[in-house]
């Protein structure tokens, strides 16, 4: 467990805070003038190696047992020009880092106009730098659960401004390794910012998945025969009932066929990769078998790309872009967004947990 917080340059305060939080070690960046410093705390069993620490960023490698990742905590500048320099520095990290990478904190920027309420509206050019940074870095926004705005200027009435300045981003590798991770916006307490809690160990109840046609099935004549047979069967009833029953017959037939045929492109890709390596190292090199296996591997790679691109629903990416990890991470993010983690009750208080959600939904309906 690792904490990040703004702090002041007071040794007794820092020691007292460390005892109050029940943590074992910390790293602090002293304040500069009126600007608050930064401090991260971590518990026993967590190893933190600081790469860099200044008033806008604490960059670190974090190890827990055999698992190791990079975590970058940010407190972005108020100036758009200075933020752009920070985005460039983080972009250089994104292009070189090969392990799981997580970035979180106060970015002092928003992605969309609806992330700000009150005050002067943000113009498109003001959002572009942050949007471009995330896109160019191939990062995934982890979203949130709870009240959307994380900062409040605490002014009265029409002068009140609320903004979603704080968030967590990750590279696709981190998201794939933590598919159920959830970012929670907690109650602000006495601060003008809401604390963010990233729960990477959350357990999710599994539900039966809805049927989705896989485009790869269209390459098999068996599937075409199943669809023709289901659509030509005689059904009595209204037109809509006939369509519904024929669609159901297609779904059942395709699912039964799917169970009898192994078209798991990831599994095929791994097996073909191993076979290709074995053929490559064989003393009696077989050019025909190697070429055939190579063609099968290329097809498996293409199938895997199609599968995750379809699930990710990223129509803005070109068909030639081969970044399966990004598609996979985006699919996981869609699942997160479609998951019901909590609801607001009749008093406007956020409640999470299965029992609370059932109670609120039951009382509403």
Structural commentary:
The protein has a domain at 2-199: Endonuclease/exonuclease/phosphatase (Deoxyribonuclease I, Chain A), CATH 3.60.10.10. It is 41% helix and 21% strand. The chain is built from ten helices and 16 strands. The protein has helices at 11-21, 80-96, 124-136, 172-177, 221-232, 239-260, 265-281, 287-312, 324-337, 354-364; strands at residues 2-7, 25-29, 37-42, 47-54, 57-64, 67-75, 101-106, 116-117, 140-141, 151-152, 162-163, 166-170, 182-185, 196-199, 342-344, 350-352. The strands form five sheets. A six-stranded mixed sheet has the order 4-5-6-7-12-9. It has a three-stranded antiparallel sheet with strand order 1-3-2, with no helix packed on it. α5 (221-232) packs antiparallel against α6 (239-260), α7 (265-281) runs antiparallel to α8 and α8 (287-312) packs parallel to α9. The relative contact order is 0.07. The model is unreliable at 315-321 (pLDDT under 50).
Briefly, what is this?
With 365 residues, this protein is α+β, with helices and mostly antiparallel strands. It has a domain at 2-199: Endonuclease/exonuclease/phosphatase (Deoxyribonuclease I, Chain A, 4-Layer Sandwich), CATH 3.60.10.10. 41% of the residues lie in helices and 21% in strands.
- Largest sheet, spatial ordering of strands: 4-5-6-7-12-9
Shape: globular
Number of strands: 16
Task: Kindly estimate the percentage of residues that lie in beta strands according to DSSP.
Answer: 15-25%
Look at the helices and sheets and give the structural class. Answer: alpha+beta
Do you know the CATH topology of the domain at 2-199? Deoxyribonuclease I, Chain A
Order of helices and strands: EHEEEEEHEEHEEEEHEEHHHHHEEH
Helix content: 40-55%
């Amino acid at each position: 467990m690792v904490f990040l917080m703004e702090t002041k340059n007071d040794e007794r305060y820092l020691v007292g805070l460390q005892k109050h939080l029940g943590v074992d070690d910390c790293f602090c960046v002293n304040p500069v003038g009126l600007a608050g410093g930064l401090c991260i705390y971590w518990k026993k069993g967590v190893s933190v190696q600081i790469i860099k620490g200044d008033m806008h960023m604490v960059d670190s490698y974090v190890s827990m047992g055999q698992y190791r990742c990079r975590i970058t905590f940010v407190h972005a500048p108020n100036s758009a020009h200075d933020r752009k320099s920070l985005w460039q520095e983080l972009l250089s990290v994104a292009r070189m880092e090969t392990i799981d990478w997580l970035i979180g904190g106060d970015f002092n920027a928003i992605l969309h106009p609806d992330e700000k309420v009150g005050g002067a509206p943000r113009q498109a050019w003001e959002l572009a730098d942050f949007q471009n940074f995330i896109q160019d870095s191939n990062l995934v926004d982890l979203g949130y659960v709870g009240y959307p705005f994380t900062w409040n200027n605490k002014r009265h009435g029409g002068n009140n401004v609320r903004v979603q300045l704080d968030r967590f981003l990750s590279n696709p590798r981190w998201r794939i390794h933590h598919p159920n991770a959830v970012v929670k916006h907690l109650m602000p307490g006495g601060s003008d910012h809401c604390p963010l809690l990233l729960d990477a160990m959350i357990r999710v109840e599994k539900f039966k998945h809805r049927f989705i046609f896989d485009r790869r099935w269209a390459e098999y004549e068996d599937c075409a025969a199943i669809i023709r047979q289901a659509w030509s069967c005689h059904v009595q009833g209204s037109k809509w009932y006939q369509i519904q029953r024929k669609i159901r017959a297609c779904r059942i037939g395709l699912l039964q066929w799917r169970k009898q045929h192994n078209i798991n492109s990831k599994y095929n890709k791994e097996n073909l990769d191993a076979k290709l390596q074995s053929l490559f190292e064989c003393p009696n090199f077989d050019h025909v078998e190697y070429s055939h296996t190579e063609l099968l591997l290329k097809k498996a790679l293409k199938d895997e790309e199609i599968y995750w691109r379809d699930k990710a629903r990223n129509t803005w990416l070109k068909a030639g872009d081969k970044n399966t990890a990004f598609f996979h991470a985006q699919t996981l993010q869609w699942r997160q967004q479609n998951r019901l983690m909590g609801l607001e009750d009749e008093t406007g208080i956020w409640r999470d947990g299965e029992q609370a959600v059932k109670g609120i939904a039951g009382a509403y309906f």
